[in-house]
Amino acid sequence: MMDQLIECVPNFSEGNDLNVIKQITDAVENVEGVKLLNVDPGKATNRTVVTFVGSPAAVIEAAFQAIKKAGELIDMSKHKGEHPRMGATDVCPLIPISNISMEETAKYAQQLAKRVGEELALPVYLYEEAQSNKTRSNLSVIRNGEYEGFFKKIKLPEWKPDCGPAEYDAKRGATVIGARDFLVAYNVNLNTTSTRRANSIAFDVREAGRVMREGDPITGKIVNGPDGKPKFIPGTLKSVKAIGWYIEEYGIAQISMNLTNITITPVHIAFDEVCAKAAERGIRVSGSELVGLIPLKAMLDAGTYFLRKQKRSTGVSEKELIKIAIKSMGLDELAPFKPQERIIEYLLKNGADSRLVNMDLIAFADETASESPAPGGGSVSAYVGALGVSLATMVANLSSHKKGWDDRWEEFSDWADKGQRIKNELLKLVDADTLAFSKIMLAFALPKTNEEEKKIRTASVQEATKFAIEIPFKVMELSYESMDLIKAMVELGNPNSVTDAGVGALCARAAVIGAFMNVRINAGGYADKKFVNDIISKGKVIEIKTLSKEAEILKIVNDKIGV
Description:
By secondary structure, the chain is α+β, with helices and mostly antiparallel strands. It folds into three domains: 5-179, Formiminotransferase, N-terminal subdomain (Formiminotransferase-cyclodeaminase, Chain B, domain 1, 2-Layer Sandwich); 184-348, 2-Layer Sandwich (Alpha-Beta Plaits); 353-561, Four Helix Bundle (Hemerythrin (Met), subunit A) (Up-down Bundle), CATH 1.20.120. Helices cover 52% and strands 14% of the residues. It has 17 helices and 13 strands. The radius of gyration is 29 Å and the shape is globular. The model has no long low-confidence stretch (mean pLDDT 93).
């Protein structure tokens, strides 16, 4: 079973004193099994968002130590800041990342809250999925009144803390601990200094909307429903919380949003909607700001969205999609946006998993030419296949932007999208093939001094051998699949690039035949002959079809060259 992984994103009420922030993050990093991903201090908000991940037990320990250290260093009686807050550790959410359910994550949050309440004598409130009482599970409802108002609020029976004493701590305040889905904290910058106008835009877009009033939407009499409570006009964006504020550090007002479900309202949709509502009020959006981290998919979806709005091909590299997203939303207006530091998958990426594909061309050639047996023919076959489909993808992108073919941009964009997918999968297999070789070597190195050890060694060798068969077979499948794209580009694509697509066909053929050699030689050491016969039979079919399709493609290319 794969390891469970949870993320913790505590918010500390200190954004200016870097020494204090460092001591808190040191408390996190001193816990084994935790990786600190991001530290994002805000001067105007006087608040720092810290992000770390790890196994549940390690994350709980790190969160406890950070909450303890923050309580020692931060004096809430002296705290000033733009962001709503109620404690030195204002909020501490746990988020399921992999191989763990929300229900399990909520239980860990409850364990953390109990420990903080008992061992640190700190008032703790549970929120979101960790809170069973849904009348007090919303963070903004819990935090209403903030630090200054909680000395009285905590004495109300309905606001007794879930854990810890019902006495408000003047120095440390109180904290809120919970479990929630991945949340994106996102601010949109405005060319105004007016908090009132920023709030109006926030009320336009946030799901909760605004209070209904008679006549003037700001000064008019509040309209109540049959229950005597104010009626609300809902905002335009689901799963979005928002407020407007003025940031003295930047001299601008912002719409500060929490996107609580980015599958319902993605970042790019929130940005565009704020742009539209701001424009209605004569205000211009000048950029935006991400607080903390964001999933890779959110950035890729944003890049794709903005390219489609331009009627341009979306079949471009991951790097290019991210660049388009950054520029389109102005994520670098207030500070440089560094994808390697802000995208969660990049921070979690193991460099060893992509050692070869991250080399430059000379280093890759030198490594291949060295006395080391890996990378070998399998890795090179995967890379040649990636080059072949990349050439066809280039032709698709050139065709998408060809003068006079404007009405065909989407047709070629779809082909380019397919090419990018195949290319990315083949690039992963470059290193995977070398990993397969390493697995076999490690399995053969296992001890075999007794019968039990011999069984373990034999099983490990067989498992590694099967992996070493499956990787090049996947290279065959993908490289053959790329032939459809290559043929389409030879027939339909920009005629000036027909030979580029033709070279792509040669590369795809070399990848299929080279990978099949690896399948066959590795299959000789695998004991399951039914599996071997089946995969060799499939491989022969792919090889024959590839040769046939290559011949078709080259005939079209040569006919078009005509010389």
